[in-house]
Amino acid sequence: MTLSETPIKGVYSGHLTAFTDHRGLFAKLFGTSELAAVWQSRPIRQINLSETHTPGTIRGLHFQQHPHTEMKLIVCLDGHVYDVAVDLRARSETFKQHVGILLMPLDFIIIPECCAHGFQVLQPGSRLLYLHSADYAVQSEKGFRFDDKTLNIVWPLPPVGLSDRDLHQPTLDGTFTGISPHD
Questions:
Q1: Catalytic site includes residue 82
Q2: Among 22, 62, 98, 132, which one carries the catalytic annotation?
Q3: Which of these, 56, 130, 138, 152, has the minimum number of CB atoms within 10 Å of its CB?
């Protein structure tokens, strides 16, 4: 497993080491020894799988507020995905900045609490596996528009396939001062 910090503190990218032979492939998806400094003692509370068929489809930008803030580890299983993390942490040096990472099979991104997540599918049938440190809580779920001018995310493909929820997310404005895991 390789692990690299991005320009946004707490957001990491990496690649899983796979062992292959005549039978196929084996890769360890999560190990506390390799990720101890990053994941620390957080539990894994939920595991999700997404599959998206149409290139250009965007999902996100989503996050959960206190008391359900969550760290996510997202692994690409199939296809190619442009994955984005947005720093929404109050008083962070990189507040309202984002990082985009191309994920291919066995690549992953770790996104800390109080950061939004979204992605655009670049190949048909792309699949992502998510490990969450908190349960999904609809009352704590929030989001921002994928095309927010403050964030200025340059998506690789023309956006398509957005859900009604994502099309109607608010934009960031001058009153947004960030979120905290303790709000």
A1: no
A2: 62
A3: 138
